Amino acid sequence: MDLHNYYKKKLLLRNVSQKNVNSLKFLETGVIYYSLPKDCSLNSVATCYAILKLIASKSPVILRAKKSSALFKIRKGIPVGAKVNLRKAALNLLYFRLLYQIFPNLTTFKPFDNFSKNQEFILTLKIEDIFLFPELRPFYFYFSKYSNLRISLKFNESIAKLSPKFFFSLCEFPVKN
Question: Whole-model pTM?
Answer without folding.
Answer: 0.76
